[in-house]
Amino acid sequence: MSYLVFYTNPQSRGRIAHWMLEEIGEPYETVWLEFGPAMKSAEYLAVNPMGKVPALKHGDALVTETAAICAYLADRFPKANLMPTANHPARADYFRWLFFAAGPLELAVTAKALSWQVPEGKSGFVGFGSYDATIAAVEKALVPGPYICGAQFTAADVYVGSQLGWGMMFGTIEKRPLFEDYVGRVYARPAAQEASRLNENYLRSRQP
Question: Domain check: are 64 and 123 in the same one?
C-alpha cells in the first residue's frame, strides 16, 4: 500500500485532516510546516500551488482542501467505516453535510468573524444566504442524532464537529445545547483526542 505523507501546521485547518488520519488508523508521516517561506518554497508549491496546508500525498496522488482530504480518506480506506455504503440512504446526507460544512457554514462563520455584511436583498448572491439560516440548518440536521448522518459516525462529523467546535471556541458560532452535546461527543473519540495531543505537543516543542 502506498505511503501517506501529511503536510500541516497545528494552527490551521490541518487539524481537521489530522483527526481524519487518526480515524482511519493507517500509518502516515507528518511534515510540519511553518507559515511563511516554508509553505512558499518551490518544493512545497509542487505539492500545493496555493502554498497552504493541509495537503496529503498518497503514492502518486496529491490531495489538497480539507474536505477533499476527508472524503478521499473515507473512500480510500473503507475498513474504517467513515462513510455510508453506496446504497445506504444516509449516503446523501454524508455528501450533503460534509460539503455544506466546507462551503456555506465555513463562509457564513468567516463572514461573521470579519464583519462582512451581505447587502439587504442580496442574500441570493452568496452561497450561505445568511448566517442565521446556515446555523439553523445545521442545528436542524443534528436533531435526530447522534451524528450528522444519524447512527453512523462519518468523515462528515469530523468536519462538522470541527467547524462547530472552533466556532464556539472563538465566538463565531453561538453556543447552543445541541451543538455543545454534539461537539463533546465527537471530540471524545480517541482519534480526535490523539490528533489534538499531537498538535499540542508540536506547539509546545516550538516554544522557546
Answer: no
Neighbour tally for 61: CB within 10 Å:
11
Please return the burial class of 130, using the count of CB atoms within 10 Å of its CB with bins 0-12, 13-18 and 19+: middle
Our count of domains for the chain comes to 2
Q: Which residues sit opposite 155 in a β-bridge? A: none
pLDDT values of the chain reduced to their tens digit, one per residue, 208 residues: 469 999 999 999 999 999 999 999 999 999 999 999 999 999 999 999 999 999 999 999 999 999 999 999 999 999 999 999 999 999 999 999 999 999 999 999 999 999 998 888 888 888 889 999 999 999 999 999 999 999 999 999 999 999 999 999 999 999 999 999 999 999 999 999 999 999 999 999 988 8
For residue 25, what are the domain limits?
A: 4-81+192-205
Amino acid making up residue 16: I
Q: Are 98 and 61 members of one domain? A: no
Kindly state the cell numbers that stand for 197.
495531543
Q: Are residues 99 and 148 in the same domain?
A: yes
Cβ 200 vs Cβ 27: under 8 Å: no
- Rounded to two decimals, the pTM is 0.95
Same domain, 140 and 160: yes
